[in-house]
Amino acid sequence: MSAQTIARARGGRGLVTGVTWLVAVLFVFPLLWMVITAFKQEADAYTDPPRVIFSPTLTQLAGVLERGFVPYLANSAFTTVVSTVFVLLLAVPAAYALSIAAVPGTPNVLGFFLSTKMLPVVAAIIPLYVISQNLALLDNVWILVILYTAMNLPLAVWMMRSFFLEMPREVIEAARVDGAGLAVMLYRVILPVVAPGIAATALICVIFSWTEFFYSVNLTAAQAGTVPVFLVGFITSEGLYWAQLSAAALLASLPVMIVGWIAQNHLVRGLSMGAVK
Amino acid sequence: MTSTLSGPSAGAAQVVGRPAGSRGGGGSVWRRRLPLLPALVFTIAVTQVPFVVTVFYSFQSWNLVRPGSRHFVWLRNYLDVFADSQFRTAMLNTVVLTVVCVLVSLLVGLGLALLLDRSFPGRGVVRTLLITPFLILPAAGALLWKTTMFDPTFGLLNFVLEPFGAGEVDWLSEFPLASVMAQVIWQWTPFMMLLVLAGLQSQSREVLEAAQVDGAGRWRTFVSITLPQLSRYLQLAVLLGAIYIVNSFDAIFLMTQGGPGIASTNLPYYIYQRAFEGFDVGQSSAMGVIVVAITLVVATFALRLMFRAFDISDGGK
């Protein structure tokens, strides 16, 4: 290989890197613009051409907090955390029964779990509305906890099962020979090994619960509303104030954004359902 | 090649296929099923029971704004739904939205994943940037696109296109479905990208190097080695993406309200409107049942694909 070819190859690589960066920045530009707008005064938000130079202010972020954002944030945090814990408590034993101690009819059970994800949620919303009204669960955080648990459980079972299948068989056999019962097997032998898989599953559940819109908009209001409900109430009551809307959107998304950034590798593993060997 | 591909999955099938509790009789099978039951019972109670109630409602004429109107009409609602041309439009929109969004976000995601599957300065930062649209609230994303991107006067899209001679386009009323799809694609591309990236990173380096030694070009290597290895990841991406995108609601609710007219109404939004704005419980329930029936037909094929991709065998036999 001549020096010239190497130089050309290096130049080509540099070009691809440049293109990659450019594409990435363009792709997230709407988000970058949201962050910028969140620090603008309303007058700087609506301009033609768009204004890039302005004096940043925290007024909008403070305004969002003043408008009662915190209770919605608390509801989102509660429903997300509690439903994720429930999902893990239900999914871990189920995945164990579907992988390590595979019960008869495993494919049917797995198929059933996945098929529930394919039922359009809208087809059940009316009964859910009526049932939660009769149980006095309308506008109550627990109805969301129950529904988010059911919403994420099938995916969690599938994911956990994939992770369980990766367990070295020797470890399980050794524990079985030692006469370990189900609880000991799960909590002392299996869980430590598949902990990263559990983290990945939990992360996916957190993202889907935090961003869920349909149930929370239809089944909750002022009392149990989550952050998407706050965003909707925000536009209907005041019209669209771009800077404040951007600030609200930023604050509403920030918690799950930070969690997702920190746990990126888990995200990849989780989404591929442990298919990564 | 084939042996490399089926290696890990064959191992997985073996673990499943092992008769773990074959030592016991019928009682032991139930003991083995025990850990599964809580999840199964909970899922049935929360997802199947409401659906059965939906079926029950779908046989009734029941409008919440007309008290005392509730009575059984059996199949009447279904006949009305089939005669409803708006329902058909919503169905067509749902198909277009789902197919286009899944395919485009998969292709863009594949492209981005290929760009990311090399080492270069700032790779971690670029990946972080690219996954972020998946992490923000879809509701926030929808509002963001509606305002800062698509606004006819102050929107960035028209600002960027202006030098190319485009006038002030009101994207949401002139191209409502396409605008919604742009936002949905933007939201789901990172998801597709992450899945493809996982697939790319699971490729064996030796095989790729061997192909290079054999003189296979980039494109040739991609088509004959990378793509086949990616197939189960691509199938998973299509399946999961379709499940979520077919239920799209946030973007339509917040960006176009299904309009203008019903130009951007999909089935979830149409049923929602009939239920919560028209208060027509019977009609919207019938629509829900029809949608479920259609979905199940499509899902049966999808599930078969899924089982092939994951090599799932029956553990008990």
TrEMBL record, chain A:
InterPro entries: BP-dep_ABC_trans_perm (IPR050901), MetI-like (IPR000515), MetI-like_sf (IPR035906). It is a multi-pass membrane protein. Keywords: Cell membrane, Membrane, Transmembrane, Transmembrane helix, Transport. Residues 73-263 form the ABC transmembrane type-1 domain. It is found in: Cell membrane. The chain crosses the membrane at residues 12-36, 77-98, 110-130, 142-164, 185-210, 241-263. Coiled coil: none annotated. GO terms for cellular component: plasma membrane. Belongs to the binding-protein-dependent transport system permease family. This is Sorbitol/mannitol transport system permease protein. The lineage of its organism: Bacteria, Bacillati, Actinomycetota, Actinomycetes, Pseudonocardiales.
Automatic annotation (TrEMBL), chain B:
Pfam families: BPD_transp_1 (PF00528). Signal peptide: none annotated. One of its GO terms (biological process) is transmembrane transport. Keywords: Cell membrane, Membrane, Transmembrane, Transmembrane helix, Transport. One of its GO terms (cellular component) is plasma membrane. The keyword Transmembrane applies. It is a multi-pass membrane protein. Residues 91-302 form the ABC transmembrane type-1 domain. It is found in: Cell membrane. Residues 1-26 are annotated as: Disordered. The chain crosses the membrane at residues 36-59, 95-116, 128-145, 180-200, 233-255, 286-307. The keyword Transport applies. PANTHER family: BLR7065 PROTEIN, INTEGRAL MEMBRANE SUGAR TRANSPORT PROTEIN. Belongs to the binding-protein-dependent transport system permease family. This is Sorbitol/mannitol transport system permease protein. It comes from Saccharopolyspora phatthalungensis.
